[in-house]
Amino acid sequence: MTMTANNKITAAAVLSLVMLSSTIASGQETGSLAGSCQLTSESVSSFHALFHADSVCDRNAYTDFKNSLNRGAKHRSFKESGDHASVPNERTRVCPRVVKDLGSATTGTVYGYDTTWFLKNEASTPVVVALVKDGVEYSGVNDKISPPQADANAIVQPGGTKVIHTFEGHVFSVRSMHEDGSTGNVLLQHRAGLIPVGTHAQQLACPSTDPEPVIEVQTPATPSSPSEVKIVTHPDFARVPVKQFKQCNMLELGFRNQANCPLHAYWVHPNTCQERFTYHLGTNHQAADYQWDWDSATKFEATFVGHQFVFRSAFSAQEVDRVTILPTVVTDCPDVGEQVYEATYGLNVVERVLGLEGINVTRQEDEFVVDGASGIWSKDMFDGLLGDKQNATAASMMYASVGSMLSF
């Protein structure tokens, strides 16, 4: 990305403000905090073989399919309308007693980019995946088919997985299936969307400005043009373009900063736990170019199942959040009696609270909610929940859903 000298501050003026301390310098691989690397390289390799290996799809056909979705046109449309700020965050509800509308009941949902949802069935029965539109359930893989169980491709056998290509804002329900082919209770609700980070980090200390780190570059002279000086993003903070020849089921995932300060995102190497700068999240939710502007609170990253990102204060290097890309796991649910259907957006009941303070869990009306389900839940967190009898059911359920994927 290039820019003119009159609208950016040069490196000499800003690098002292935005570069992290020498122990975790941006753009370099650095040592990670002890015990913070959750997935082994073997786990990442197994996810790759299951979802992303060349044997999983025809990469030429998959690349053509992704290109046909025309993310560029959506990008231009959102820049003109500013509606990108209204694209919802990802949300997952496990074993709901009250089945709620995860779209907007009053203003309608703003749909974002294409994305991919990975599902694993660890329930004891087959499950059926449904796309929910205006309260009606359709096949999660073919929205022309209703009821969803009429589509064999929407049914996931015990131990099976499903890859669903969808859009940010789309809402799904996953139901158990009986032996006669009829459907049972909703085991899980899921809304595709942006991954919120730093939700509970509202007391961070940071400067009032967040200038982009840039350097001056002398371009070589050519027969048709003289040499000139351009201002460009500092190489340590430059984004890497997405490869055009895409690997199978590669995610182009959106992350939204909800902390009160700018954050740096680092990819965590599964072998060494070292961290490599990946992108910057500002605090401007109405940036002119929400995808590329330095101060934008939203960024998109090409990634894969098993990849892990740590989010640190751009100024102090304090760890604020940590997210691992994992399949959503469906499990058997405790008997909740007859489910109630409510066409309003529900309150969060069990919230993800990541970072240095651990996790807080509350319970209301016997319903349990997991927000930002891609985040890591540690064994210590679950052990703490299990010590609270009031939350034992929620803890056991979430441990079974996520713990097996993290090899606890």
The helix tally amounts to 6
Per DSSP E runs of 2 or more residues, the count of β-strands stands at 22
Rg (C-alpha, Å): 22 Å
What kind of oligomer do you see?
Answer: single chain
Order of helices and strands: EHHHHEEEEEEEEEEEEEEEEEEEEEHH
**Secondary-structure content class:** alpha+beta
Q: Low-confidence stretches at least 5 residues in length (pLDDT < 50)?
A: 1-35, 343-408
Main sheet?
Answer: 7 strands, antiparallel
- Portion of residues in beta strands equals 25-35%
The helix content, as a percent range, equals 10-25%
Shape assignment: globular
The residue-averaged pLDDT reads: 76
Distance linking N and C termini: 43 Å
List keywords for this structure.
408 residues; alpha+beta; seven-stranded antiparallel beta sheet; four-stranded antiparallel beta sheet; 6 helices; 22 strands; 14% helix; disordered N terminus
Describe the protein's architecture and organization.
The structure is a single chain. The chain is an alpha+beta fold. Helix content is about 15%, strand content about 30%. It has 6 helices and 22 strands. The strands form 6 sheets. Strands 2, 5, 6, 7, 9, 10 and 22 form a 7-stranded antiparallel β-sheet that branches. A 4-stranded antiparallel β-sheet has the order 16-15-18-19, with no helix packed on it. The chain has a 3-stranded antiparallel β-sheet with strand order 1-13-12. A hairpin with a 2-residue loop joins strand 5 (about 125-135) and strand 6. Helix 5 (about 380-385) runs antiparallel to helix 6. The longest helix has 11 residues, at about 40-50. The protein is globular, with a radius of gyration of 22 Å.
